[in-house]
Design goal:
2 domains, DNA-binding, 124 residues, homodimer, alpha+beta, 4 helices, Arc Repressor Mutant, subunit A, two-stranded antiparallel sheet, three-stranded mixed β-sheet
Chain lengths: 124, 124
DNA sequence: CTCTTTGCAAAGAGTTTGCAGGGTG
DNA sequence: CACCCTGCAAACTCTTTGCAAAGAG
């Protein structure tokens, strides 16, 4: 049977921080942000909870930048822009046209990502 | 000044294998495929040359599946389908509509990827 | 009190790198 | 023969995991 889920302060804090963060943080970044409030937080716990959120559909990995996975707590459909110079990941208010989703694809599609690459305004 | 580039049999073999492969192989997969012909090939060499190709724009990393980077020697614009069950990466003959590329994006865009996720026909 | 969650540290996995020797032009 | 390329293995980085202790219901 399904494993029972309990409410822990740290898990709630990780979830909240992820939802609050607009910059698609890595596990390490989330960890660093929560450390002041939870000095005994462990990086492993952040990873374990992110894996959990992903399973439950509460979070999504939007990209791997410089070898680090970047997460998003917003799960509504939208695109992303990734700066190849500084690694910044930004939201782009844009969804993939429905007609593209109705195409003949080699399987059962459950989702799709649209990602732009380039150099961000900040770096230019 | 720029480092001089020379022609080596192994680099050419890696390039050719990447172009011939339609399944977006990982470094390890390429290595395994070339090993019969080059029994003394080293995985490090595959990685080094892939990094090189990427720099020169001759190859692209289209996704990270199960922790492994997957490469594509085809650099013309097209989309991909990734099976979340078996990890297969397939080409999808579909380009992102030009009008999406003319949108107001937060920087200078140099490329974009469109990736579908789901379960492939083979797994269904 | 039972079962989940966590800290800690070690283990894993993929990728990168230093160095000495072999290959290319 | 100068300099690039490669094999080998160690080093690195990010992520996962085992275990015993702490926390939740």
């Amino acid at each position: 049977m399904e494993a029972q889920r309990r409410v822990s302060r740290k898990r709630e804090a990780i979830r909240a921080e992820l939802l609050r963060s607009m910059d698609h943080p890595s596990a390490e970044t989330l960890y660093a942000r929560l450390l002041p409030e939870f000095p005994d937080l462990s990086l492993g716990t952040v990873y374990r909870n992110l894996a959990l959120f992903r399973q439950e559909g509460e979070a999504v990995c939007v990209a791997t930048v410089a070898g680090q996975e970047r997460f998003d707590g917003r799960t509504d459909p939208h695109a992303h822009f990734i700066c190849q110079r500084c690694g910044r990941v930004e939201d782009v208010a844009l969804t993939v046209p429905d007609k593209l989703l109705r195409l003949e694809l080699p399987g059962r599609v459950s989702g799709c990502t649209l990602t732009f690459y380039g150099v961000c305004d900040h770096c230019l």
